[in-house]
Structures
1.
Amino acid sequence: MKAITIIQPWATLIAIGEKRFETRSWATKHRGEIAIHAGKKIDLEACMREPIKSTLAKNGYTINSLPTGAILAIAELNDCLKSVDTWTDGYELEFRKLIYYPEYEFGDFTPGRYAWELINIRCLLDPIQAKGQQGLWNWEYDGQGGTGE
């Protein structure tokens, strides 16, 4: 299965279903299942900003409880859309897909970047320790560790 390593708090925001678009400087042709891996790095400054701090808190997370170095969720990568415009209340992606608050606070939707649309996100009940990599990488899922809806 393909996997992507994402630093915290963004990996957890995806796993708990609050972040549906992972933004990158590069596009991908991959579609289908993708494992969401939390890297070992935590952006402490981001964790203190709103709405990230309150979104984590309402889901029972603090800076000290964010899992690292583990697969947190399995999702489907549905589409990869280029960010094309910005306006007062959000961002516009290709084909007039609009991104509103708070989603736009959870990524870098600067025009020219890419938004990877994630659907059917399934948070793992128990994170599975794994060593991450840059870019898309292959993760051998052995079927251990249940998923929660």
2.
Amino acid sequence: MWDTVKLWLREIPVSYEIIESVLMVIGILAVRTLLLGAHFRSRPDLSIDAKRRALVMSRNVTLILVLLGLAMIWAAQIQTVALSMFAAAAAVVLATKELIMCLSGSVLRSATKQYSVGDYIEINGLRGRVVDINLLNTLMMEIGPNALVGQLSGDTISFPNSLLLNHHVRRDNVLGPYVIHTVQIPVPIHLDSDAVVPRLKAVLEPLCAPYINDISKYLEAVQVEKLFITPAAEPRVTRVPHDDKVYNIVVRFAAPVAKRLEIQQTVLDEFLRVQHRLLNPNVG
């Protein structure tokens, strides 16, 4: 039957490869639509991030399948063109260097699982929450303008995946639903740290207390399953010398991802109140 279809296609006054390519693309897109629809219907409780992750993955897999299919259909023509264009191969490589690096960065990200949709990452000074990933670049919602605030600014940032080859990636939520969060607070050197640290601990510890047991059990499970050396879940406030003008108070705590900014802001608010009282001792 397939031989008959091939003979019929060859009689159409259009290139056989073009018809095969169109049918192949339509077929792959149709299969993708059916599979996505079935997946969403079978799991109606999926979160937005999970649905978005499935869409991104299906789109990238579809693109790869289409490229592979086109390469197979046009293999003979590609081979002929490749042989005739061998002399220009070096120039093509140089011209497409950035494209090749982007594709290599995408392969590296997939192989090492550096991040996925919904993760909070920082790379080359760019910080945000990943909302889309393709073979060439990554799109994320910017976090800023101040790193201490940690809120989404409403702007988007797109960076080429080639950055993954030359810069390290910092990922906040590597522990899934929980995060070990650290914030450094610069303090004027003449302010007594013994008057600041106890107040920050008094605010921080009650905020973290409801989550410590659950996070500790989760970290123990991660350590056993993935052989990670996981940090402690208890909150800590430490002092670190910096220079002759300021020292740093380092606040570190474990919390659910959704609660970390709320806890951080409460600690920063308390610090500002304490600093104000220390700088203005005569004010009521």
3.
Amino acid sequence: MASRPSLRIGFVPEHFSTPLHYAKKYFGLNAELIPFPSGTGHMITSLRSGEIDVGIGLTEGWVAGLGKEDVEGDGGYRIVGTYVETPLCWAISTGAKRDINSVADLKNGKIGVSRIGSGSYVMGFVLADQNNWLSPSSPNPFEVIPLQTFEKLRNGVNDSTADFFMWEHFTSKRYYDNGEIKRIGEIYTPWSSWKIVASTSIEKGDSRLEALFEKLDQGVKHFQEDQEESVKYISTELDYSEEDAREWLTTVEFTKRTKGVDLGVIKKTVDILKKAGVLNEKGMTAETMVTHHR
């Protein structure tokens, strides 16, 4: 019997990818790692087109992608695992010289996002909901400007293509430090931040998926036990200072067991995204989104 091809795993090439790097470097993860700097929304497109088999990305992006009422076919993927237990801090940024100084200045403005349906898009609605800017007569609190990449988002707020965007705090911080962009606030996800999904073409008991969970668990354990190596890797191979890498390590908690998902987390995410106007009652239920339960 011919062996099956190795998994193609999409990931965001940021500090959160360190345990995945260890899984391949030290523990023999047999997979092709494919970076997606533009984030979760791009991975959803690639999962549905058959370009990748697995994605490690943001909870809100995966849930929004499956929960829309106009999803074609079976949605292309299901949530199978957990990666990070802690919430994500989204920093809210504008151009360095823009006359925008607080979250209150953003109402009815232009939000830069990587893609429609991405975490940066979804969190705009959560931000609007938290500030009571949503109403039946005004379901779209911002003009949405898709700009694909973090670099284009930074350029967009400086040339006024967009008024603001949201991206992970530590990834943004070096650009505050060098004066390229200005920080005007932050918002935390009301859910644990990173989940693992698999294409619906992969069977639930696929040995490649089981091996991924095993190797990722080993990568997380190595990450936790050798933080000095992690600081060195993040500050030399990725786009972070040593100081920021050390500070980030104090804020993040990776799961000890990547296989499976707490259905309650997905239900909470669905409920909040409905309240924020991202999803409605006609979309896929949380129970249908998850195939591997804890």
4.
Amino acid sequence: MTDQETEFHAKLRALVGQPTGGTGKPSVAPDPVNQPMIRHWAHALDDMNPVYLDPEFAASSRFGGIVSPPVMLQTWVMPSPKLEGIGDRGGAPIEIEANPTAFLDEAGFTSTVAVNSEFEIERYPRLGDVISGMAVYEDVSDEKKTALGTGYFLTWVTTYTDQNGEVLGRQRFRVLRFRPER
């Protein structure tokens, strides 16, 4: 292995345990958990669970009131998208201030495909909760050859908490960063 390859692999391994956004700060929901957004989600996904929509039913449930669908955790912390210049940001809907994986682009691993997403739910979000999410790289694979090209699987875990720091859940997300086959 060349010195350049050794340095590249060291940078890859150094991602593990580091925040994904480069800032080290959690993403905070722009709005508290609220009924209109829950209603939009329920109707868009045809998930008409009465604990999401019916205050009377929800009050008599084990939750004691309206709750948010737990897989909405990611949705609550999404910032408002900035669409101007989105192509210049590689399709990212927000400004990327510090990209800890920029060295992958420089090495030719310019394409990304989402592979999977898994949720672990501790408790359902309640109306008024202000949710934060902190994403940290969990794993980087060895180099893999795939039908799309050669690359690396990057996995990060986002931990979602409420305004009191109580963990609501975790989302494990995996992508393949690869060199496209020509």
